[in-house]
TrEMBL record:
The gene is gmk. Residues 1-178 form the Guanylate kinase-like domain. Its EC number is 2.7.4.8. One of its GO terms (molecular function) is GMP kinase activity. Gene3D superfamilies: Guanylate Kinase phosphate binding domain, P-loop containing nucleotide triphosphate hydrolases. Keywords: ATP-binding, Cytoplasm, Kinase, Nucleotide-binding, Transferase. The keyword Methyltransferase does not apply. Belongs to the guanylate kinase family. Essential for recycling GMP and indirectly, cGMP. InterPro entries: GK/Ca_channel_bsu, Guanylate_kin-like_dom, Guanylate_kinase, Guanylate_kinase_CS, P-loop_NTPase. This is Guanylate kinase. It is found in: Cytoplasm. ATP binds at G7, P8, S9, G10, V11, G12, K13, G14. It holds the Pfam family Guanylate_kin. It comes from Termititenax aidoneus.
């Protein structure tokens, strides 16, 4: 099965996905390429593969991405080779991409199930991004600008889950994944 998770910056996508990975061994997360600079504590090949804009553009020209988009003035893309490897291993795959990536992946994989993570409110979202301590006033402004457009796309996802209490959100998404895997197995009988 293929799953995609999207949501505005700071809603907790990364945190929720780490928790889901701790709870299940049947899921691989696709590690994207990005031209964004690594944040403190981010390791190349774990959070992302960090490359320059020039290298990213070469990879686009070589057709190495299943999908890519420019988000908050940086490139982000899903590697074709990596996804093929994960699918060949027979594991379920989870993508964390922006709403442009979500639309693009849905077009390519009709069996993809999509989950949008919503914040409990805009003030809380801003608080979380600020508390993370990773953004300058300028990158914060860009993230909030993008947020409005992203929230408008929430209704196009199969599921919408509010990340108020972390554990409850993780539990809901975990159940959605279980349910979709079960439904898919039943449909193949
Ligand atoms: N289209 C697309 N979006 C991606 C990909 N990887 C990450 N993103 C999205 O890019 C946006 C920015 O990610 P990031 O810089 O880590 O910032 P954060 O959302 O503030 O943690 C988020 O919406 C991610 O979901 C990708 O491979 N493709
Ligand atoms: N349910 C939650 N309640 C409070 N803070 C949260 C919650 N989920 C995540 N956070 C915090 O919010 C910040 C943004 O989370 P992060 O996972 O980086 O978001 P995203 O990947 O969506 O940008 C982090 O500091 C994280 O610890």
């Amino acid at each position: 099965m293929l799953f995609v998770i999207s949501g505005p910056s700071g809603v907790g996508k990364g945190t929720v996905i780490q928790e889901i990975l701790r709870r299940r061994q049947d899921l691989s997360v696709s590690i994207s390429y990005t031209s964004r600079a690594p944040r403190a504590g981010e390791t190349d090949g774990l959070s992302y593969f960090f490359v320059s804009r020039a290298v990213f553009e070469q990879m686009v020209a070589a057709g190495e991405f299943l999908e890519y988009a420019e988000v908050h003035r940086n490139y982000y893309g899903t590697s074709r080779a990596q996804v093929r490897k994960m699918l060949d291993s027979g594991r379920n795959v989870l993508f964390e991409v922006d709403v442009q990536g979500g639309i693009n992946l849905r077009r390519q994989f009709k069996e993809l199930r999509s989950i949008f993570i919503l914040p409990p409110g805009e003030a809380e979202l801003v608080k979380r991004i600020k508390n993370r301590g990773t953004e300058t006033p300028e990158t914060l402004r860009l993230r909030l600008e993008t947020m409005r457009g992203e929230m408008l796309k929430a209704g196009e996802y199969d599921y919408q889950v509010v990340n108020n209490k972390l554990d409850a959100c993780v539990e809901k998404i975990n159940k959605i994944i279980d349910r979709e895997i079960k439904l898919e197995k039943e449909s193949r009988r």
